[in-house]
Amino acid sequence: MSKNLAGSAEIGAAQKFSTEQLNQLVDHENGVIDRRIFWDEEIYKLELERIFARCWLMVGHDSQIPEPGDFVTSYMGEDAVIVSRGRDGKPNVFLNSCPHRGNRVCFAEAGKTRRFVCNYHGWAFGSDGRLMGMPAEELYEETCPNFSAADIGLHPARVTSYKGLLFATFDEEAPSLDDYLGEFRWYLDILLDNDADGTEFLDGNIRSHISCNWKFPAENFVGDSYHAAWTHNSGAMAMLGVPVGQPNQDRAYHASVNGSGWQFGLDMIGNAMTLGEQDIVDYLRSREEIVAERLGKIRSRMIGAVGSCTTFPNFSFLAGHNTFRTWVPKGPHKTELNTWVLVNKNMPFELKEKYRKGVMRTFSPSGTLEMDDGENWEHSTTVNAGTVTRRQKLHYGLGLNSRIEHDELKGEIHKRKYNDANQRAFYRRWLELMSTPTSGEI
Ligand code: FES
Ligand SMILES: [Fe+2]
């Protein structure tokens, strides 16, 4: 990257808050959260700088870009990005914004191309983001001292694949992805590494918008099993003809690592039931021993169980159900939801289709269960328009004394299914990032 085009550090929202003010927003020890974090514009701007521009964000799956030239477009925070397979076979992530006047260089959601050519003046970039050429290139060489096309390109992010999932960060100081995920990889492997042939995203991605702050869905998936029997009961009755059962509280846990969290039971078949496809249940049951051999008994029981997960900050999924999603911020009161379906690569085609249909019936914009959730998150956000309302605090105190040690499970473990433990851990991490000006200090 040309030195004179290199970016500079944050100059925005950071000046508006002292560490003391930020600390008052989250009291994770007592489970008290200030509502302004779901509403205020300035807090949101600081999140873009200190969370979305620094964390490793899930941007896609290797299977979406199998060959050189394949690409998908996405967002990291509010930064538009291209995720592209280079000619050397490596994945690249770079800003979808031309270094000449800033225009968007790719308008497609997915495709294959040798060049990304900017509409405005015709600068062309390769699948690694490098500038390949432009109209009247000789004039640049004649009139622009030290001009070197090789030094100019689409601003790159660091990118790493974890067992097929592609993560990227714009922070050069961020730890490696392995360190960022830490012991949470042990949990991710349940879905990503239960079969030697690996996984893939089914073709296609559904994008929809919800008028809510991005943290409500993220914190819901990180640990809110409490809402399921109430919020989703009518949906379950309509779809499956049975109410959402009461979970076994004693064989259920919250696990968290660096703000990421998974709440789960050990019933093996739970989430998978909601797809309404007996073949999927049979498939999971038929593989229990194979998975146990590969990952151990306890993880073989989590593969399709009732549970939900968020990888900090905004990537969530449901094991067994296999909806994978990112909550992309579009302002403090608006979230873009991207949904994919993850399957084992070597699964029969008919079964993959059943996953696709099951997810569409439940967790798509018209899905029964998605609609239940979206309405709650919208009102949890928008009611804070009230000046007095937004000054009030929210209660996150369930399970404050439920922490346990566990011989096998990794990370910080809390017992019982109904618990705010993972949500408190999520906001502890949120506060740590928000109140630390430079990445090296985290
Ligand atoms: S803005 Fe892209 S070529 Fe000018
Ligand atoms: Fe829900």
Q: What's the topology here?
A:
Layout: H1 19-23, E1 26-27, E2 32-34, H2 41-52, E3 57-61, E4 70-76, E5 79-85, E6 91-95, E7 110-112, E8 116-117, E9 124-125, E10 131-133, H3 137-143, E11 158-162, E12 165-169, H4 177-181, H5 184-192, E13 199-201, E14 206-210, H6 215-223, H7 228-231, H8 233-240, E15 252-257, E16 260-265, H9 278-286, H10 288-295, H11 297-300, E17 307-311, E18 315-317, E19 323-329, E20 335-344, H12 349-362, H13 368-382, H14 387-390, E21 393-395, E22 403-404, E23 412-415, H15 421-434
Antiparallel strand pairs: 1-2, 2-21, 3-12, 4-5, 4-7, 5-6, 8-9, 9-10, 11-12, 13-20, 14-20, 15-16, 15-23, 16-17, 17-18, 18-19, 19-20, 22-23
Bound molecules: FE2/S2 (inorganic) cluster and fe (ii) ion (FE2).
FE2/S2 (inorganic) cluster is lined by residues 98, 100-101, 103, 118, 120-123.
Properties at a glance:
442 residues, alpha+beta, Rieske Iron-sulfur Protein, Naphthalene 1,2-dioxygenase Alpha Subunit, Chain A, domain 1, 2 domains, 4-stranded antiparallel sheet, 23 strands, binds FE2/S2 (inorganic) cluster, binds fe (ii) ion
Would you identify the CATH architecture of the largest domain? Alpha-Beta Complex
CATH evolutionary superfamily of the largest domain = Naphthalene 1,2-dioxygenase Alpha Subunit, Chain A, domain 1
Give the names of the bound compounds: FE2/S2 (inorganic) cluster, fe (ii) ion
Structural class: alpha+beta
**Beta-strand proportion:** 15-25%
Low-confidence stretches are none
Count of distinct structural domains: 2
Q: What characteristic shape results from the CA principal axes?
A: globular
Number of extended strands:
23
CATH topology of the largest domain: Naphthalene 1,2-dioxygenase Alpha Subunit, Chain A, domain 1
Largest sheet: 10 strands, antiparallel
Radius of gyration, taken over Cα atoms and rounded to an integer in Å = 22 Å
Counting H and I runs of at least 4 residues, what is the number of helices? 15
Measured as a percent range, the helix fraction is 25-40%
Indicate the mean pLDDT.
94
